[in-house]
Specification:
The chain has helices spanning about 5-20, 75-80, 85-90, 95-100, and strands at about 20-25, 40-55, 55-70, 105, 110-115, 120-130. Strand 5 and strand 6 form a beta hairpin. The chain has about 130 residues and is an alpha+beta fold. It is elongated, with a radius of gyration of 15 Å. It has a single domain, classed as Alpha-Beta Plaits (2-Layer Sandwich). The protein starts with a helix and ends with a strand. Strands 1, 2, 3, 4, 5 and 6 form a 6-stranded mixed beta sheet that branches.
Length: about 130
């Protein structure tokens, strides 16, 4: 039976392979370590959000938030229209999530927000997944 901890591990490995990003030391604060120019870092947050049942199987629902931070080394649009779009296109596909060992199902409703503070562009991606029983 997969657990939320298994899910976090699976997502971290897959996200690092996709983006080449390094996880920040804190998943709650982004101001504890600097992001070097041209570098990409991420944070991963999860919380249990109930359960889903069908017939006699109950699966845990987990709400995930991925925050991808990139310190610009050049023009903003070079990154936001290039690498960022490629990453978002991949992680919005249900197949990417279902390929993770701990994921059973994916809620099709996803939220993406983009923001910029100084030279750091942040993409926030929220999704709910069902973990395997």
């Amino acid at each position: 039976m997969a657990t939320p901890v298994d899910l976090l591990s699976d997502v971290a490995v897959a996200f690092e392979a996709l983006t080449g990003a390094t996880r920040l030391a804190s998943d709650l604060r982004d101001d504890l370590e600097p992001i070097p120019s041209g570098a990409t870092r991420y944070q991963l947050r999860a919380s249990s959000s109930g359960s889903a049942s069908d017939s006699n199987v109950t699966r845990t629902l987990v709400s995930l938030e991925l925050l991808l931070h990139h310190r610009l080394a050049g023009a903003e649009r070079a990154w936001t229209e290039g690498s960022l779009q490629s990453h978002l296109e991949t992680i919005t596909r249900a197949a990417w999530w279902r390929a993770l060992a701990s994921v059973y199902g994916v809620d099709p409703d996803v939220e993406i927000e983009l923001s910029r503070e100084g030279a750091v562009v942040t993409a926030s991606f929220s999704i709910t997944v069902e973990i395997k029983p």
